[in-house]
Design a protein that fits this description.
The complex is a heterotrimer.
Chain A: H1 2-40, H2 44-47, H3 63-70, H4 73-104, H5 109-122, H6 125-138, H7 146-149, H8 157-168, H9 172-180, H10 185-196, H11 198-214, H12 217-222, H13 231-236, H14 246-266, H15 268-278
Chain B: H1 2-47, E1 49-50, E2 58-59, H2 63-70, H3 72-104, H4 110-118, H5 125-135, H6 142-149, H7 164-174, H8 177-189, H9 192-200, H10 205-232, H11 237-245, H12 265-275, H13 279-311
Antiparallel strand pairs in B: 1-2
Chain C: H1 2-24, E1 61-67, H2 71-87, E2 91-97, H3 101-109, E3 116-120, H4 121-129, H5 137-143, H6 152-158, E4 159-160, E5 163-164, E6 166-173, E7 175-180, H7 181-186, H8 196-206, E8 208-209, E9 215-217, H9 225-229, H10 231-234, H11 252-268, H12 270-283, E10 298-302, H13 305-312, E11 318-321, E12 336-344, H14 352-362, H15 365-375, H16 388-391, H17 396-405, E13 408-409, H18 417-432, H19 438-448
Parallel strand pairs in C: 1-2, 1-3, 12-13
Antiparallel strand pairs in C: 3-12, 4-5, 6-12, 7-10, 7-11, 8-9
Helix pairs in contact in C: 2-15, 11-12, 18-19
The chains are: A mainly alpha, B mainly alpha, C alpha/beta.
Chain lengths: 282, 313, 453
């Protein structure tokens, strides 16, 4: 009797402690979001008064319209959306093409390219940065969105790996019977494989969205005209020469982050799927 | 007779396969040539030249490399980057593993908890970085505020050379969501029959963890370690923003943070390319980085194979 | 499932419409990002192609002007631009506030950059050595531009290898000592210190500390960082380079200044001082600026400060005086960096004639006056020194007196200036945080500088 009671109390204590641990971790992980939102609803004067308080003493909405004035927010959002939509299209078109080639077509280039795929993921951005910049510069393509969008139409190694995995699981006999029915390679691709790929492609679209929306490095290097900046660069403009306008910056950041959060909440399952499949070794 | 026409048919079939395969893969091939191979080779060429955004490359042989090896800031950048690799990577993995184990168990609010842990790695990095900078503010930031409530006098996180890199580590831990999900998935895939067998044999949960879970997810952990390691050599965005946020111009154009404590290798490459305008040297530095990363990746991939073979998967 | 699809479609719709708006909007917004001005001058909206449009009988040629000013100062620039555009009808200047040095350099080296830039002389050197500036000597000679009214030292900052690469708009011994009269009076002082030794004494008396050791009021002028690197060193007779442009990282004066600096920091706690300075940095030039709210007794700062104090805290009881010198070098009183605001033409400027025309106007009597008065900076022209509006700028008597003393220290015209500064900052960081003694740090610095040109 005694030992089972002891065992039960021990289990109970463990449960309570685990719950506490989980809750504490959740609070820690949520804190930056709380701070972001909280700061966006207070004035700078309030944020810079001691004693410091987490929540505003006086809630205000003024930062949001003010932030929209400091930088041309909607213009930046339009720019960013434009780039993002095209990036998604580019990726969704090119990725399955290449993945299909590597997965379902038995040709001698397939293993070579598969190996190269991984090799390209290893190349640090800084190595290709300068030559690419020079090329675009000579072609007078700086301050356009072409350097940002063009690469997406040629397949991104990371996405190809994910989709290839997926296509690999499509049964060969399905394709065989289509071939017997007279379908050529492209028809087999577009009428059978592509429709079946939808889940994987959705994942690719989501990740392409995230990458393009948050991209900082490429816009920073190629875009300098103010009216062409993207949102991630626009946030930087709140950091002035002398000091940073924190309240308004946080307001702008909140508006920047919201679409991403919404997207995530809607497409949660795809996110999780995409991440999981990418973890499996080739 | 039929055998010869058989082989001929096979050859045409093969040729058609090759053509089709090539055509379908052509976007990537073109992309590879233009965006990877050509820049890689030019970059190598540039390493032996000297030029700026407004001048043409002039051959200088090994001068850039000489310069690099005698530049104290290169050494500093390397040290900083290595610190992040060696400290951040294991800590990140540990954190991801712990969170993954938590989320792998079934409990009521699991979905929400998982979302909370994963959300940080989903939002744009610049937004996250900026919030952290604000949180790290020595006087008005929430971190020191909380610390002072328990009686600790918090340091000037991003201004004290001693604590800047640790601040980066903390920011990194917040971002382990992706790794967590991957590991969690792997944990869930470990067949429950193993655990049942272990239980029958009388093993407790700790033993089960070390003898079943770990070997079962070993390949995933090592893969994440490789990814993390490669990433740690690419630290640019966060440090760039942090440095810009702490008074930009006052600290000089090309600052690497307090006492250059967060001068990461890619950041220094960037300085050399776009601020000191020495693009030849920057290219040389970048190629050295590439070689190091390549060697490490190959090494670690081989290590992965060995580990998974030994553990029997 | 259905709900999800619906939401997804909604998102896509929002994104698509935003992108359409974003594209279609390109014709409407002007390219002035941060200057939110109550425009009393009508701004012409311009299309995406803002580069030099050839004038077709009546249409003006566009001249792109990028300056480094924000907020209030940006409005002054707008005034200047409006005045110029009104004064002639061949060119139209379009202004842009570009504070990102990085972007500016990248833009100047491409052919999508500005036609005219406004920058400080320290950056001018860097731009020159990277071949980004257009040689203006030919224009000067062609148009017989009258340079006599420009102060020698100011012209000197724009001259490289004997040729002129820019025209000076403002110039002078830019930094002097501001002090809080109330804080001094509370400690029993009616006059500001005349020597650094006196300054240190006063600093000790005025610095106050809270109950848990944090610094409440800072007596010694450790902030802004740039002044600590320059004027605070110069006042002790130290220099980082000599007149020929040779680097002198281990000057006696620098060592003495740093030793005094560390003595003060150690007295009140190195970490506490750093914490105070961290806050000061977050608040710089905002309403909560440490000097504006009376938490700093002495401050080495620039000609622009009175204007800023006016805007943020007009009730501050402060005074300005020459930077003190040590007892050994009394002739160094008022020593400061010589800072000039200059206008130059990038080598890739699309509309060079228009750029030159604007540069001449902006630095002539009328144009320079607008900027100098509006920004509150000392002029680079002799004739402006007589102008009553200039003389009325708060604090000018001290700065003009300082200019006359000719104690300004010019930036060195060396290629690796930016790198040298970053190495100096590095060394100073190590000293201030107590990792190295001043002597060690400066010796280390000397080692690192060996490769610099």
């Amino acid at each position: 009797m005694k030992s089972s009671q002891f065992y039960q109390t021990k289990r109970f204590i463990v449960k309570v402690l685990s719950a506490l641990l989980i809750i504490v971790l959740c609070i820690i992980f949520l804190t930056p979001f709380i701070v972001m939102i909280s700061t966006s609803f207070r004035t700078n004067a309030d944020a810079f008064t001691q004693p410091v308080s987490l929540f505003p003493r006086e809630w205000t909405l003024e930062n949001f319209p003010a932030a929209m004035n400091v930088i041309p927010y909607w213009r930046y959002m339009g720019n960013t959306s434009f780039i993002t939509v095209l990036s998604i299209i580019g990726n969704v078109i090119s990725t399955p093409l290449v993945a299909y080639s590597l997965s379902k077509i038995k040709w001698k280039g397939a293993p070579i390219i598969s190996g190269l795929l991984l090799a390209t993921m290893m190349i640090p951005y800084t190595v290709t940065m300068i030559p690419l910049y020079r090329i675009y510069s000579k072609l007078h393509l700086t301050n356009t969105y072409i350097p940002l969008i063009l690469p997406t139409f040629f397949g991104s190694s990371y996405f190809i790996v994910i989709v290839r995995q997926f296509i690999g699981s499509i049964s060969d006999s399905l394709l065989e019977s289509a071939k017997i029915d007279g379908a050529n390679e492209f028809q087999r691709y577009s009428k059978i494989v592509l429709p079946l790929c939808k889940p994987a492609l959705t994942t690719v679209a989501i990740y392409a969205f995230m990458n393009a929306w948050s991209d900082y490095l490429a816009p920073m290097i190629y875009i300098s005209k103010t009216e062409k900046l993207t949102l991630s660069l626009g946030l930087q403009q709140f950091m002035g020469e002398y000091s940073t306008d924190w309240a308004r910056l946080m307001a702008a950041a909140v508006v920047f982050v919201i679409p991403v959060v919404i997207f995530y909440i809607i497409f949660q399952r795809n996110f999780v799927q995409g991440v999981s499949t990418s973890g499996i070794k080739e | 007779m039929s055998k010869r026409s058989d082989t001929r048919r096979k050859r045409t079939k093969n040729r058609r396969q090759n053509i089709n395969g090539f055509l379908f893969a052509s976007p990537w091939i073109i992309g590879f040539l233009c965006f990877s191979l050509y820049p890689l080779v030019s970059s190598l060429y540039y390493s032996f030249t000297s030029f700026s955004p407004v001048s043409q490359p002039v051959w200088v042989g090994l001068k850039n490399f000489e310069n690099i090896f005698t530049d104290s800031l290169v050494l500093k950048a390397l040290k900083n980057t290595l610190f992040m690799s060696l400290v951040s990577t294991p800590l990140n993995l540990l954190c991801a593993l712990s969170l993954a184990l938590i989320c792998a168990k079934k409990f009521k609010a699991r979905g929400i908890v998982r979302t909370i842990y994963f959300l940080p790695s989903v939002i744009p990095m610049i937004a996250g970085t900026m919030v952290w900078i604000w949180m790290f503010d020595p006087t008005y930031g929430v971190i020191n505020n909380v610390l002072s409530k328990v009686g600790i006098n918090g340091p000037s996180w991003l201004l004290d050379p001693k604590t800047t890199k640790w601040s980066l580590v903390m920011m990194g831990l917040w971002n382990v969501g992706t790794a967590m999900l991957v590991i969690m998935n792997a944990v869930q895939e470990v067949s429950s029959s193993y655990y049942e067998a272990a239980k029958i044999d009388g093993a407790n949960s700790v033993q089960a963890f070390f003898h079943i879970t770990i070997p079962g997810i070993a390949h995933v952990i090592v893969y994440q370690a490789i990814l993390n390691l490669i990433n740690s050599f690419q630290y640019f965005q966060q440090v760039y923003i942090i440095i810009r946020a702490s008074g930009g111009n006052a600290m000089g154009l090309a600052s690497g943070g307090p006492a250059n404590s967060i001068l990461m290798y890619p950041l220094y490459i960037f300085h050399n390319a776009f601020i000191y305008m020495d693009m030849g040297k920057a290219s040389a530095m970048a190629w050295l980085l590439f070689i190091v990363v390549a060697i490490m990746t190959v090494f670690m991939t081989k290590a992965t194979k060995k580990v998974t073979d030994e553990l029997g998967g | 499932m259905k709900r999800k699809k619906y939401l997804a479609l909604l998102m896509v719709g929002v994104v698509l419409s935003a992108s359409i708006i974003g594209c279609g909007d390109s014709g409407k917004q002007t390219s002035e990002a941060t200057s939110v001005s109550e425009a009393d001058t009508p701004k012409e909206s311009e299309t995406e192609e803002t580069e030099a449009v050839e004038s077709e009988g009546g249409e003006r040629e566009i001249v792109n002007y990028w300056h480094i000013h924000t907020n209030e100062e940006a409005k002054v620039e707008d005034e200047l631009i409006a005045a110029y555009n009104a004064s002639q009808d061949k060119y139209e200047v379009v202004g842009l506030s570009m504070t990102d040095q990085q972007k500016l350099i990248v833009a100047m080296s491409s052919d999508e950059g500005p036609d005219v830039i406004f920058t400080s002389n320290s950056n001018l050197t860097t731009y020159y050595f990277n071949g980004l500036l257009y040689n203006l000597q030919k224009y000067v000679e062609r148009d017989q531009t009258d340079l006599s009214q420009f102060m020698d030292m100011a012209l000197e900052t724009c001259t490289f290898d004997g040729d002129l690469y820019g025209l000076p708009n403002s110039g002078g011994a830019a930094i002097q000592m501001y002090y809080n009269k109330d804080l001094l009076a509370a400690a029993g002082y009616n006059e500001p210190p005349a020597t650094m030794e006196e300054l240190y004494e006063m600093a000790e008396k005025i610095t106050t500390v809270t109950s848990n050791g944090d610094i409440d009021v800072l007596g010694y002028p450790l902030f802004p960082f740039a002044s600590a690197r320059q004027e605070l060193i110069y006042a002790f007779g130290g220099t980082w380079w000599d007149e020929e442009g040779n680097l002198t990282p281990q000057s006696e004066g620098a060592l003495e200044s740093l030793n005094t600096n560390m003595k003060f920091r150690e007295q009140y706690g190195v970490e506490q001082v750093q914490a105070f300075l961290g806050t000061a940095n977050t608040n710089r030039y905002t309403e909560q600026d440490m000097f504006f709210v009376g938490k700093q007794a002495f401050r080495f700062d620039g000609t622009w400060l009175p204007t800023m104090i006016e805007e943020n805290n007009p009730d501050l009881n402060y005074g300005i005086t020459l930077i003190p010198a040590t007892e050994d070098y009394p002739e160094l009183r008022g020593v400061s960096r010589y800072e000039s605001g200059t206008m130059a033409m990038p080598v890739n400027a699309a509309n060079k004639e228009g750029a030159w025309d604007f540069i001449q106007f902006a630095n002539g009597y009328e144009g320079a006056k607008i900027l100098n008065v509006g920004r509150g900076v000392t002029p680079a022209r002799y004739d402006l020194l007589e102008d009553p509006e200039i003389l009325a700028i708060p604090g000018f008597d001290v700065f003009i007196e300082a200019n006359k003393l000719d104690n300004g220290i010019n930036y060195p015209k060396i290629k690796d200036y930016a790198k040298y500064v970053s190495l100096i900052d590095n060394a100073l960081d190590l000293v201030y945080n107590g990792y190295m003694s001043p002597e060690e740090a400066l010796a280390d610095l000397a080692e690192q500088c060996k490769g610099l040109e």
